[in-house]
Design a protein that fits this description.
InterPro entries: Metalloenz_LuxS/M16, MPP/UQCRC_Complex, Pept_M16_N, Peptidase_M16_C
CATH topology of the largest domain: Cytochrome Bc1 Complex, Chain A, domain 1
Helix content: 40-55%
CATH superfamily of the largest domain: Metalloenzyme, LuxS/M16 peptidase-like
Oligomer: single chain
Structural class: alpha+beta
Pfam family, one: Peptidase_M16
CATH class of the largest domain: Alpha Beta
Strand order of the largest sheet: 1-2-6-3-5-4
GO molecular function, one term: metal ion binding
Order of helices and strands: EEEHHEEHHHHHEHEEHHEEHHHHHE
Largest sheet: 6 strands, mixed
């Protein structure tokens, strides 16, 4: 019988085995990554197009080009697409990032031929109908106007513009008038430039059978599609960080302030990045972090506060984020700097470091346990331009980092004078 009065023995995680996808090349040259795992008769297809916000010549071009794929094709109307996906129990997601646009399909194996036919049509032959476009734009404009009253959105916008500069792709944000400039022609221009087999890669995960691979090959891999002669260019952009220490955006009706503090920092390819993740986790990367223990648990200033390194095509950005009552903003900023200074001067106790190790290793195990999470992991490797050794190096860093190394990293990167403080809320 299990004695529940005795705590189970804690066993250290020494190794994490992450299944590597089978990497193939389809007949037309499209890279295909196959992750065969799971027992359920379901698969997920991710089509990655190298066309993100970085590439657009007009604000909102990337968002609406990808969003409009499901609003009508040469073979199907928007209503037919929605009805067929619903009938076959499939789910379609359309999303964009700085460098990529994504088309993601979840489908039962037995209906894969039917659902893939729909996805093939929306990728290869969208028509961008004016009526549907008008509806989609108006809906998104309405949501934008709502978001524009929220301090979190205003702070995020001010923070990105302050870090990168308003002319940088990561620092540019749409205004209401930009929604009125979106036309079917501008979306078609973006589509024809970037949506083709020479600018595409595919991931398929789940219970992948030979039949499913054959269907995928027949739909997307046999012949070239789109205008593959178009060259995709990712031009560099100059980062122009503001010289201001404090950036304030006033919102008279705000009941609380949104606070973001940060600076340009190392990217994922930097040698210090792996161990820096451990320091960031201790500082503000999990529920038991220094920031949470001090600012939430001890001081009661906020419900939650976190820190992390956000990655962009040409930079990493260290950011601390929280929301709190307007009168606590200054105290929170002060305490953030106090915690940074403590990590610069004192060694992290062995018990705390061990707890964070176990937390991070446990998160790694949970993140790579299923076929779809494995697909996410390997897409992350591709889109972040990392090597296959990333997971192994991350594991080693968590296992081997010392308190002395963490203090040294804090001294090197936690520089208060380089931090930008962005506050959005009511002026007191």
């Amino acid at each position: 019988m299990l004695n529940r009065k005795i705590q189970p023995e804690i066993k250290a995680i020494e190794q994490i085995s992450i299944a590597v996808p089978q990497r193939k090349t389809m007949s037309n040259g499209i890279p295909l990554n196959v992750i065969e795992a799971g027992n359920q008769d379901v698969v997920r297809v991710d089509i990655l197009i190298g066309a993100g916000k970085w590439h657009q010549t007009q604000l909102l071009q990337t968002l609406f080009t990808n969003r409009m794929l499901r609003e009508g094709t040469k073979r199907f109307t928007s209503a037919e697409i929605a009805e067929k996906l619903d009938y076959y129990g499939a789910w379609l997601e359309l999303s964009t990032s700085m460098e990529y646009s994504y088309i993601t399909l979840y489908s039962l194996n037995k209906y894969f031929a039917n659902t893939l036919e729909i996805v093939e049509s929306i990728v290869k032959e969208p028509v961008f109908p004016e009526k549907e476009l008008s509806t989609v734009v108006e809906t998104n404009k309405h949501q934008f106007l709502i978001n524009s009253t929220k301090v979190e959105y205003l702070a995020q916008k001010s923070f990105a513009s302050s870090i990168f500069g308003e002319e940088h792709p990561c620092g540019r944000f749409a205004i209401e008038a930009d929604y009125d400039k979106v036309t079917s022609d501008c979306l078609k221009e973006f589509y024809y430039q970037y949506y083709h087999s020479g600018n595409c890669s595919i991931y398929i995960s789940g219970k992948v059978t030979d039949e499913i691979l054959n269907l995928l090959e027949n739909s997307f891999g046999k012949e070239s599609w789109g205008k593959i002669e178009n060259k995709v260019l990712t031009l560099p952009a100059e980062i122009k960080t503001t010289s201001l220490k404090r950036v304030f955006t006033e919102q008279d009706s705000a009941m609380q302030s949104s606070i973001k503090m940060g600076k340009v920092m190392i990217q994922r390819t930097h040698p210090d990045y792996y161990k820096m993740r451990v320091l960031i986790t201790i500082f503000g990367g999990y529920f038991g972090s220094r920031l949470m223990s001090n600012i939430r648990e001890d001081k009661g200033y906020t419900y939650g506060i976190s820190s992390g390194i956000a990655s962009y095509p040409d930079a990493g950005v260290f950011v601390v984020s929280t929301e709190a009552a307007n009168e606590y903003a200054e105290d929170i900023i002060k305490e953030v700097y106090n915690e940074m200074k403590t990590l610069q001067t004192e060694l992290v106790p062995a018990s705390e470091l061990e707890m964070v190790r176990n937390y991070m290793l446990g998160e790694m195990c949970r993140s790579y346990e299923g076929p779809f999470s494995l697909s996410d992991a390997w897409m992350f490797i591709q889109t972040s331009h990392l090597s296959d050794s990333y997971f192994e190096e991350s594991l080693k860093a968590v296992q081997n980092v010392t308190a002395e190394e963490l203090r040294s990293l804090a001294q090197r990167y936690f520089n208060q004078e380089n931090m930008i403080e962005v506050v959005s809320g009511k002026k007191l």
